Structures are given as C-alpha cells and as structure tokens.
Amino acid sequence: MTSSTWNCEIGGPLIGVGIDAESVARFVALLPDRPVLPLVFSGSESAHCDRLPDASRGYCAAFCAKEAFFKATRVAMDPRDCRLLWEPGRPIHELELAPDLAAETGAVRAMARVSWVGQECVVEVCVIGRGG
Fold first, then answer.
1. pTM
2. H helix runs in 74-124, sequence order
3. Is residue 72 part of a domain?
4. Among 82, 93, 100, 102, which one has the highest count of C-beta atoms within 10 angstroms of its own C-beta?
5. How many domains, in total, are found in the chain?
6. Tell me: the pLDDT tens digits for 56-70?
7. CATH number of the CATH domain containing 71
C-alpha cells in the first residue's frame, strides 16, 4: 500500500482524523442471514449497498467509515446516524451525518477516503468543524 495525502481546502478547523480497516470476508458472512445489519446500517444505506455489484464491499466500507468517524470524534453515537454511500472507483466520499450527530460533534463536513488492498478495506475520515 502506498501513502498519500489529502489535497483539499477543508474550509474550517480540523476536529479529528480517524482510520479503520476490515476484511470484506467479515461482511460476506453477514449478508445471507442479515441479523445485525439493521442495528448498524440505516435503511437508505442498506438499500444502496444492496444495489452495488458487490454488496459486501459496500457494507465493509460503510462500517469502516462509521468506526473511523467515531475514532476521529470520540463521541458515542448510533452507527445509523453516520452514513457512507460508497461508490466503486471514487476515492473520496462525503459522509452523511444526522443533524443531532453533526451538532454534538461540531462537524460541518466529514470526508472519507476509501482504499482497497485486495480484500481489505481501509477508510480514513477527516472531520471538519465550523470556521472561526
């Protein structure tokens, strides 16, 4: 894996950066029975992942984004309040945050960079606050 840097104008103070990694195999195993998916993924997030050519990759990326957001903000949250609608081939995504979560964390924007190394997903999240 090669390193890279964020090249963007963030437009506000940096609240935090978080990173998470998971194997897609963990999500392949969850999909047939789907017992815990509604506890972690919103309905719109699940519908989006289910439409992807490889749903397990979508769920894996979304889960990593939730974990990385939590690590960046250290605020306890309902995981369904932080959503990543991952699209294959797009390296940077905006996270969708529920209004209450955005207010509690002070986040104005949260960006996720998604990378794949074989069957391993790595997501870095950068959380931006209100400009001063």
1. 0.90
2. 99-105
3. yes
4. 82
5. 1
6. 999 999 999 999 999
7. 3.90.470.20
Q: How far is CA 74 from the centre of its chain?
A: 15
The mean-pLDDT minimum among 29-38, 45-54, 58-67 falls in 29-38
- With beta carbons less than 8 A apart as the criterion, state whether 27 and 59 touch: yes
* Residue recorded with tokens 């990378």: 115
> Are 82 and 99 contacting, i.e. CB atoms less than 8 angstroms apart?
no
Backbone φ, ψ for residue 100 (5° rounding): -65, -40
Strands 120-129, 14-23: pairing kind: antiparallel
* Residue whose tokens read 């964020």: 6
* pLDDT computed for residue 1 by the predictor: 42
Would you say residue 108 lies in a domain? yes
pLDDT digits (tens, 9 = 90+) for 100-112: 999 999 999 999 9
Q: Torsions phi, psi of 7, nearest 5?
A: -120, 80
Residue type, 16: G
Residue showing tokens 């069957």: 119
User: Which residues of the chain form beta strands (DSSP E)?
Assistant: 14-23, 82-83, 92-94, 96-97, 107-117, 120-129
**Following CA atoms 39, 63, 20, 132 in sequence, which dihedral angle do they give, to the nearest 10 degrees?**
-90
Phi, psi of 127 (to 5 degrees): -110, 125
